[in-house]
Amino acid sequence: MADQCPVTGERHDGDAPIFTPPYPVPHKSKASLFKRFLTGWSSWIHTLFEKSYTMRMGEIRLPRLDFYIANDLEVVDRVMDDREKAFPKHPFLNDLLDPLIGNSVFSANGEDWEQQRAMVNPAFAHTNLKRVYPAMQGAVDDLMAQITALDRSKPIGVDPLMTHVAADIIYRTIFSVKLDGASADAIYRAFHRYQENIQPGAMLRLYGLPTFGYRRRAKKAAADIHAVFGPIVKARHDAFHSGTGEAQKDILQSLMEARHPVTGAPFTYEQIMEQVSTIFLAGHETAASTMTWALYLLSECPHLQEALAAEIERVAGDAPLGFEHLRGLDGVRNLFKETLRLYPPVSFFVREITAPTTMRDKLLQNGAMLVVSPWLIQRNRDNWKCPHAFAPDRFDDPAEAEAAKRAYMPFGKGPRICIGAGFAQQEGILTLASVIHAFRLRYPDAPKPEPISRLTLRPKHVVKLFFDDRG
């Protein structure tokens, strides 16, 4: 049958109607400074207006900062590749993340970043996809047992479950131990508090206003997260340097063994905590967000669930999902990729202008903020067909191959692209396939989830779904 794209008016032929999942309806025109302040208080994407999704380059003047949004793909390539080394991460980003990760490989710039990256690179050998698969499988098996044991006669909150499994996977990879339920819940709640407080604190700073305790409360939430794994890091750090510790084959061991490429000095305990915090945050929060949105999208598309269940059955049969099966799950992979396109966990990459630069006839001065937004680029109709629609098979469409190459950047782009992209995709495919194989998902009679964008993109309220036995 034929259906019409509700955004662009394009026609669509297929067995199922076009599904456009929720996103904030953009304002008709650019909001005033005051209105932008109010809407940005809890979510960046709610400040956008219609032209934001089609413009090549936007400009906004704030009381203490000029910032620009670059959607032109040539400009984006220039900034993200940064061959000129002129577009480091903006101090504003460090301001948002410092209580959580300090001066780590994610936030550092220039020579400091290069030296830190050289030190942490060996640790990522432990994220080798085949090597880490048993840890992933163990965490996913525990998730499935947890869901099975819940009262499934009523909707179940998905966000905490996905946070637990993603955090457990990276926990096992960093520390070689499981993450218990109480600790996972503490991390989920503390990170939620962190985002609730750091976002308004950031808006207040942008407007040159006092932060009224928001930053202090964010620091307390960050300390609560660190308290979960800090004792493990401290005990193993002390044992390692006293020569009494037993070596483990994990990320923490590699960080303790790392040496500075120039001075030969090891990481201090505080520096290891910063690196561990970064890997842990990047390794679980973004994956948890994506898997939560993917399960919601599936709940709205029963036909897709059945197609993917058939794919899993065809590839794995009655056997448990093994590492060798994941390569054949193209449909599940496309689901994960399309979820990342529609709901990129990190919606905005923030860079600093360090020398007067002309871009698209605009002169950008020192200190200006330049934003590259996967949220906007991945929803721009100049890049994608029917960009707000959920269409996982677009990644098999030759007509969208160029967009998939140039206008798809949920993990970043250039030399600072996320080193854990393959890790995230593997855990996402394994987790989603395991859920699809066991359950049919249904969305209850309730308002649709609303995405809000702070440090990461999450539903405003917990997504709840029915998990019915597939039988």
What's the helix and strand layout?
Layout: E1 2-4, E2 11-13, H1 33-40, E3 57-62, E4 65-70, H2 73-81, H3 91-101, H4 110-120, H5 129-149, E5 156-157, H6 158-175, H7 181-206, H8 214-242, H9 251-257, H10 269-299, H11 302-316, H12 323-326, H13 330-342, E6 349-352, E7 357-359, E8 362-364, E9 369-372, H14 374-377, H15 401-406, H16 421-438, E10 439-442, E11 451-453, E12 457-459, E13 464-469
Parallel strand pairs: 4-9
Antiparallel strand pairs: 1-2, 3-4, 5-13, 6-9, 7-8, 10-13, 11-12
GO molecular function, one term: monooxygenase activity
Family: Belongs to the cytochrome P450 family.
Region (Disordered): 1-21
Report on the structure:
This protein is of the alpha+beta class and 471 residues long. The protein has one domain (21-469): Orthogonal Bundle (Cytochrome p450). The protein is 49% helix and 11% strand. The protein contains 16 helices and 13 strands. It has helices at residues 33-40, 73-81, 91-101, 110-120, 129-149, 158-175, 181-206, 214-242, 251-257, 269-299, 302-316, 323-326, 330-342, 374-377, 401-406, 421-438, and strands at residues 2-4, 11-13, 57-62, 65-70, 156-157, 349-352, 357-359, 362-364, 369-372, 439-442, 451-453, 457-459, 464-469. It has a 4-stranded mixed sheet. Helix 5 (129-149) runs parallel beside helix 16, helix 6 (158-175) packs across helix 7 (181-206) and helix 8 (214-242) packs across helix 10.
